[in-house]
């Protein structure tokens, strides 16, 4: 039980970073984000993703536009704002520092 709680917290801690990184590559639809996270074995459901996307948008990190769909209603595609790119750069640095620190602490770096 303790390991599961720690694993959950670790995944939650990197989720925003992963989402911003995915969106940074190209304008992205929410279901594509879920597919990429699932492919990376970071399983996320819509009930987790949509509130997070809304929070990131409200914090000025994302923008979106509506694109007509041939197979249903219009789709909301997300992209990074200038502030989002700045924050992603900071998170890139933090991730590299943390990865190095963890690898060093557990004996994988010398």
TrEMBL record:
Q: Which InterPro entries match?
A: Metal_resp_DNA-bind_regulator, Tscrpt_reg_PadR_N, WH-like_DNA-bd_sf, WH_DNA-bd_sf
Q: Which Gene3D superfamilies match?
A: Winged helix-like DNA-binding domain superfamily/Winged helix DNA-binding domain
Ranges for the Transcription regulator PadR N-terminal domain?
A: 19-89
Superkingdom is Bacteria
Q: Which PANTHER family match?
A: PADR-FAMILY TRANSCRIPTIONAL REGULATOR, TRANSCRIPTIONAL REGULATOR RV3488
Name the chain's protein. Answer: PadR family transcriptional regulator
